[in-house]
Amino acid sequence: MDNDTIGTNPKRAIVTGGTRGIGRAIVKELATGNFRNLLFSDIAFVYNSCDECAEQLIKEIDNPNVKVYSFKSDVSSFEQTQTTVDAIIKKIGGVDVLINNAGITKDNLLLRMNEKDFDDVIAANLKSVFNYTKAVIKPMIAQRYGRIINISSVVGLIGNAGQSNYSASKAGIIGFTKSMARELASRGITVNAVAPGFIQTDMTDKLTEEQVKRLIQNVPMARLGKPEDVAKVTAFLCSKDADYITGQVIAVDGGMTM
Ligand code: NAD
After folding, report:
1. Distance, CA of 177 to CA of 53 (rounded, Å)
2. Residue of 2, 11, 103, 254 with fewest CB within 10 Å of its CB?
3. What is the reported pTM?
4. Taking the CA of residue 102 as centre, how many other CA atoms within 13 Å lie in the half-sphere pointing to its CB?
């Protein structure tokens, strides 16, 4: 099958962190959105805690042409990732698209941040991207086709007081994305990052009203974004229309970083 034919065939995707917020919106967008030329036959999403949320999401997908599967696994573990990706590939027959979305925050000023808060965030946000990318590139190289989209953050571009661990992980994702884009471009695989600004999810629900008010002072569009705003750009990057885009970081941030 040549690259062009693969590009328009229904695809098989892995999405990490699928049960909530942005990941949930991405699973729904890929499964039921109708972006030009972009069809999925199978979507496997990975999550680490809420079994009911995983079941509920599968129930909500109303498209008989797409099969959606959930896999419970810790993305920060290299061993668990190998086993999980092997099981996913066995179930869905291969992988064309990887969305590295899972992430956590453990915010604190550096003076108060302990070693575990730093290590946990780097492991869940950055090492996970290494784990999943490493697990999928062999089959992607063999089929000479792949789309990898890594969910970074605007704080990986501009930093944020109280988030040195998180910003470092998100900036690390950007360096990793660009290096992978260079390594894999000749193999028919594109690798891009999406950098959301402040998006309304469980992650930002932790902020106080006062903090949100202060944050949106720096957003020209003067509001938080929606998970769907990020999901639609991610879907575009999976599509054939984005075939000549690689190594880019696309901010979805209401104009916050321009
Ligand atoms: P969320 O907390 O609502 O959801 C996170 C998801 O990741 C959940 O499904 C959870 O199960 C999964 N997850 C976390 N740790 C995991 C682990 N170790 N193993 C497996 N799964 C794990 O978060 P969100 O706001 O939807 O954020 C999604 C991504 O977008 C994250 O990478 C986050 O850093 C990034 N982001 C979010 C915002 C925002 O404002 N919400 C802004 C910029 C970037």
Report:
1. 29
2. 2
3. 0.97
4. 31
What's the pLDDT tens digit per position in 121-144?
Answer: 999 999 999 999 999 999 999 999
Substitution candidate for ligand 1 out of 48, 57, 126, 166 with most atoms within 8 A of CB = 48
Do residues 79 and 23 touch, judged by C-beta distance below 8 A? no
Angstrom distances, CA of residue 4 to CA of 7, 16, 121, 234, 243: 5, 27, 38, 20, 10
Q: 63: Cβ–Cβ under 8 A, 6 or more apart, which residues?
A: 31, 32
- The amino acid present at 254, given as its one-letter code, is G
Span from the CA of 113 to the centroid of ligand 1 (angstroms): 20
Q: Percentage of the chain surpassing pLDDT 70?
A: 97
Measuring CA to CA, how many Å separate 188 from each of 95, 100, 225, 241?
A: 14, 19, 32, 14
Using pLDDT thresholds of 50, 70 and 90, give the confidence band for residue 3.
low
